[in-house]
Amino acid sequence: MLEPLHPLLRQAFDPERFLLLGQQILQDAVHHLKEAQSKVRERSMPWTPPEDEKLFWEARLDAPEGLAALLNLVGQRSNALQDPRYMGHQVAAPFPEGALVGLVTDLLNNGGAVYEMGPTNSAMEEVLMARIGSLMGLPDGCGGILCHGGTLANLVALLAARRRAGRGGVDTWVDGDGVKGAVLVSEQAHYCVDRAVRIMGWGAEGVGLVQTDGQHKMTRSGLEAAMQAMQEKGRKVVAVVGSACTTSSGAYDDLNVVADFAEQYGFWFHVDGAHGAPAAFSARHRHLVSGMERADSVAMDFHKIMGVPALCTGLFFRAQEMSFLPFTQSAEYLWSDAEDPEWWNFGKRTFECTKRMLSTRVAAVLEEYGSEIWGVLVDRLFGLGQEMAERIVERGDKGWQLAMEPEANIVCFRYLPVQFADVEQENAFTLKLRQTHLERGPQYIVQTKFSGKVWLRCTLMNPLTQAADVVELLDRIEDLAKQVQQM
Ligand SMILES: Cc1ncc(COP(=O)(O)O)c(C=O)c1O
């Protein structure tokens, strides 16, 4: 006989308890938001060495104090992305109501691999992908899927490319892939393209790195050279990936150059717009993605410069039916006909089986603000990038160097207060400066390396960052540099 419901389970599912806890936690979250926005805390990134942090949690997790206490602690020890001094990696300072969407959708927790698991999920997703694709300038009939991250979206796009390329009627989904394929991509592209190619079984040599010019963009001659190098190795190029923009330097490839090249040779043209495709929503910056409308597929992260909490990525295809290319999965317990292009059973098109209720996250932004807010956000964040660059150039004669005029909200620069013997010493100094800054703050910035040089790197993700915050960062770096010189 079934035992009575255990008191713990009764407690866990008690709506009144949920309400009380929720009220407390929401209040705390608002407090956290206010604190972060007004820079009350000493630092936007509470740096602790990894082993110390692990020790802390080993002890704390042995002594539970309740959910509200736990969440407060997590808040205190986490990076405050809403802090205007957060200028680090490319994760959105999300519109706060995204957290409210999470509250409701996490409670509903509908899957959606098949329609009946979450009817709103798939229907809303189908509508949104077509509409947003059109707003981005993709052709009529475009469509696609939402998925968990740009890394996954890029992999799925390349799976589609491989399948379409085929080999004399061979279906790679059915027969596997005996051909040594290759993908061409900028030497400055995000590592996930390299990873995708290796996952596809084409190994390190399956990635044809295209050299970039002085502006960190792929050129026609670079593409031709990379293609030739691949052909000499007996590789069949299947796809070419344009970066909009690159992760390290924030440079937009000229997508028309890439599209012309792909068109001439019949390659799949994928745009990795995980970070920068939302430029399409800004009249001021749309030119940066000119040519994107010619792509076979585009990946765009809603959780970067579109204000949605991570992870939420759109993978758009030129034609909706192309979104069925990556997979043709038999699963009798889910659907009866693997070949049938049923948009409503999105497990047929997504890598994931269960996924979060992603469409509601995107719809929430449109519901509250309309797509206009994405253009406004892009203008603000790219404007901050420009502001930072101008402030750096202003100080140039005192040891400041800008890697390039920023096109987006990614700014790479160095500060070398004295003459160093060689680039190794310059790099060592920059690394030390960045590490010291990481440990002491108050801003959070990161680092990168290209053209043989280590750069300090900022991604301006928070629209509440002000020009004064930028000036404070530069002053702080000058100040810390003096300390580093004496170390
Ligand atoms: C250009 C580009 N592509 C792909 C990714 C990976 O995206 P995700 O972190 O959503 O997997 C990033 C992340 O920074 C990126 O900048």
Q: What is the distance, rounded to the nearest whole angstrom, between the alpha carbons of the first and last residues?
A: 72 Å
Low-confidence stretches: none
Shape: globular
Class per helix and strand makeup: alpha/beta
What is the H/E order?
Answer: HHHHHHEHHEHEHEHEEEHHEEHEEH
Our count of helices gives 15
Cα-atom radius of gyration: 24 Å
The averaged pLDDT comes out at 95
Instruction: Give the cofactors and ligands.
Output: pyridoxal-5'-phosphate
Going by CATH, the architecture of the largest domain would be: 3-Layer(aba) Sandwich
Strand order of the largest sheet: 1-7-6-5-4-2-3
Tell me the total number of β-strands: 11
Give the name of the CATH superfamily of the largest domain.
Type I PLP-dependent aspartate aminotransferase-like (Major domain)
Q: Provide the domain count.
A: 3
- Helix content percent band: 40-55%
Percent strand? 5-15%
| CATH hierarchy, class of the largest domain | Alpha Beta
What does the main sheet amount to? Answer: 7 strands, mixed
CATH topology of the largest domain: Aspartate Aminotransferase, domain 2
Task: Annotate the secondary structure layout.
Blueprint: H1 7-12, H2 15-37, H3 50-60, H4 67-77, H5 97-108, H6 119-135, E1 143-147, H7 150-165, H8 172-175, E2 181-186, H9 191-199, E3 207-210, H10 220-232, E4 236-243, H11 255-265, E5 268-272, E6 297-301, E7 313-317, H12 358-369, H13 372-394, E8 400-402, E9 410-415, H14 423-440, E10 446-450, E11 453-459, H15 467-485
Parallel strand pairs: 2-3, 2-4, 4-5, 5-6
Antiparallel strand pairs: 1-7, 6-7, 8-9, 9-11, 10-11
Helix pairs in contact: 2-4, 5-12, 6-12, 7-9, 13-15, 14-15
The structure holds pyridoxal-5'-phosphate.
Pyridoxal-5'-phosphate binds at residues 90, 149-151, 190, 192, 243, 247, 272, 274-275, 301, 311, 313.
